[in-house]
Specification:
about 70% helix, mainly alpha, about 0% strand, two-stranded antiparallel sheet, NADH_UbQ_OxRdtase, 19 helices
Amino acid sequence: MGTWPSLLLVCSVLLVGWVALGKHDMDWFASGGFMVLDSMSFSLILLSIWITMLMILASGKVYCAGEFNSLYNFILAVLLITLVVAFSSYSLLMFYIFFEASLIPTFMLIMGWGYQPERLQAGVYMMLYTIFASLPLLLVLLNTVAKDMTSVVLDMNITPTGGAVVLVGAMLAFMVKLPLYLVHLWLPKAHVEAPVAGSMILASVLLKLGGYGMVRFLPKVSGCMSSTSWVLMSWGLLGGVYVSVVCLRQVDVKVLIALSSVAHMAMVFGGIFTMTSWGLNGAVLVMMGHGFCSSGLFCIANMSYERSGTRSLLVMKGSQAILPVLTLWWFLLAAANMAAPPSINLLGEIHSILGVVRWSYFNMLPVAALVFFAAAYSLYLYVSTQHGKSPGVLLGAKPVSPREHLTLLLHWVPLNFLVVKFSVLQMLICPSSLYKMSACEVEEELLFGHLGQSTLTLSTLYSNWTT
């Protein structure tokens, strides 16, 4: 198939995904014996399909080389299938299997198409870090399945012997995947050594497996974890603040973008951990917005790397005078990364902040620091790459191709125009349940409602969690 028919096919698939991407208000329904969809899983599946198509568009250098293209496409297809099954699994045990299986094609991408010999160390580091952190979760799930004879999300009653300590160990699998500070060390290594497609899918979708798993798992154990809730919330938010400060000291553009993902996921963790409708809806919106934004940043960073031959911000500076078209895209994506309007990141962060601050007013300080430093390191990224005196590494760089413009445009459009979908606006005015499979207790607050009717209770399973 030629170049333009391929682009037409990709655009057709993306158009279908865009039309369906705003369906946040549908109920969950069974699509098979072991697969179930609700609005959150449906949105993340569409995000996976969208990013996979953009990975194909961004991998022009791989296809131009003409070696192992069939294997490359096969790995991308297998990765997409594992993600779709993981996001639609009705069983927590099956979710765990595909949660771990998604590491295999990612590892193959890093090993086969990585840029440097250190990719072996990065791949092994990622595999060992995530697999060993997931073992406590596997033990808890097997114990629960043996006791209740079911692994269905709605029917499980996870109360293992050992109480909160065991459950925090089980949550560690999702914290590493998200990741939180102190368990994030595998992420910068994996991003630095991964090809552009590996970085795009890793930042945009694979990290969301951790957040998705927490939304499914946390309601089942919230009653046992109330004694440790302050510790975990402090870990997430303060760790995010520290990583945000570390971002301001980075000189490698891919490491900076990778660490900024850790800071954004701290806000997602806080929103999920509140178990309120504002917090959970905000976390889902931030995950969706971060999926488009981080993938776009890694994509444009790779374009600059291919032209300059370096990832160093000290050498890459001054691009504005040589490639002004890329400067526009750098600005738009950096603005979205700091949650500037009209990006969906802004609405997601507002909702998450409302949920986190309502959970405890002491959270106002770390949340304010997260918002401030997000703007600081985004501006630092933009200024360091575009301004200053260029050392000349970009002289004679090839112009930006239509394929590259299309790739960046298809990152930016849903990031900024998804908010105008009517169903998203409806969800923001009256937050609806995106997580019906979890059967969790959340407080749903109306933005515009009658006096005395501003709070609705979806269920009463865990009434003590938010008190």
